[in-house]
Amino acid sequence: MGYRSFLKLTLVFALCVIVLGAYTRLTDAGLGCPDWPTCYGHLTVPASAEDVKQKHYLEQRPLEPSKGWAEMIHRYFAGSLGLLILLATVWSWRRRTSDPRQPVWLPTLLLGVVIFQALLGMWTVTLLLKPVVVMGHLLGGFATLALLFLLVRVTGQPHVVQTSPGTRLWALLALIVLVLQIALGGWTSTNYAALACADFPTCHGQWWPETDFSEAFVLWRGLGVNYEYGVLDNPARTAIHMAHRLGALVSLVVVGGFALRLIGEGDEAGRVGWIVLLLLLLQVTLGISNVLLHLPLSVAVAHNATAALLLLSLINASYLLWRRPR
Questions:
Q1: In terms of domains, do 170 and 124 share one?
Q2: Cα separation, 278 vs 275, whole angstroms
Q3: CA-CA distance, 287 to 48, in Å (whole number)?
Q4: Same-domain status, 130 and 164
Q5: Are residue 173 and residue 283 in the same domain, yes or no?
Q6: N or C: at which end does the chain have fewer Cβ atoms within 10 angstroms?
Q7: Are 193 and 232 in contact (CB under 8 A)?
């Protein structure tokens, strides 16, 4: 297998880890194992409480094998991804000796992000699903995927799309808006606010229901608090949900406007614009469906996966628009 093919395989693997992470979070399996990196002191999930050798773990949390396996499978995949990225980094440095154009600092940065991701994964368990840590873990996964995709693009054949400076700036604005919206989505999920509003486009039958923004975005609430199923009251969760809805509206306008501008330019830019627009419309549809269908697991996981693909489509657009031939 060649170097770039290996990077593509690693990229697909990273997307699988994101999907598995979403599944773990949405099935409330984030604390399926009360310890890290083992599960009740085992490398696999014990079949029953009688198989747990270190009984003090059972005092922390009763054994639920299905949730334990969801968490451990995610850990297995995440650990394997880390090894793949380590290999890609070493391979990059070795290739540099024969090809001075081979990027090495990008894969090195990627390796650093993955190491920090492992720490966030540990803190997710040890700090009992603290929202700021869980959201950071989510964003770290998206950052890993984005850097991998960028490495694949950088090591490919030079290619640019000619466009106006205004379109290039719009591409960066769309990317920034989407990243902020992904962060808002992560905050919504980690605070169990996805179903704070059960109707659409209104919320509790009102265009602007009772909200509590002073409590909604407190990042640090001290140690020793178990955040499983959330600790916020309904007005605070509603505030988070409404902020995510407003962010979705802004994203629709900015990212959609950028996609339509690319489509209007035709040729290669138009093809890129259509991909962005279709993923954006799919993402909005999935978001609305999550509310109206009361967060079905398949739709919620697809919402996370489509967010990742939409992010990659915008990174691809920005790369093509801003890249200059060597």
A1: no
A2: 5
A3: 37
A4: no
A5: yes
A6: C
A7: yes
